[in-house]
UniProtKB/TrEMBL annotation:
Keywords, in A-Z order: Signal
Protein name according to UniProt: Secreted protein
Domain of life: Bacteria
Signal peptide from the UniProt entry: 1-23
Protein's UniProt keywords contain Signal: yes
Amino acid sequence: MRRWTIRSLLAVLVATAALFGSAAPVAAGSGPPPADEVEPAWFGGGPITLYVLLPGDPNGPPPAPDPALPAADVFLIAPVDAAHPQDPGVVIPSPPAPFPIVVPVHDTVVATSRPYAWRANCFGVQVLPGPAATARTVLTRPDPNGGATLAYALRFGARTVPLTSAAVIAVGARLGLLTLDRSWPGYGGTCWTGRPRR
């Protein structure tokens, strides 16, 4: 059972997500340290595992990003399969949080130039309907816990495209169909991916 703290909240949101830009590979033979969180995620439309070291954890990264690592965005989307979300939502009471926080029920999309064995400072980003969105073009699911209503697919005519790839999320943002909300939670720790799952 998870300990729901601010650090766990950040890890949950970090695990929601896609990563843009280059990322530093893990040195050969050194291997990454043990993860505080291991989360299922999407990468290029397929399943992958995301590992997270929480900020401020005694065995994890420092409370601030490591300047030696690249920055990467991790995107939180609504569950692609509503009956089987990758991560359930939770309400974190106050205390331990400074104010009550609602974590949406969500899935995670990861995108990077390297599909595995890299490390980066990760920043949580919520994927919301954009200014050009309509109920027909952007499909959303409300969080039953009262959190954000997140997007999970785009509809182009009769075709529905799930947001399981960062490339699709980027196109949706460019078209104004999606808003990438970077206001919260911010830095969520050091992340890397495992090999694609089957």
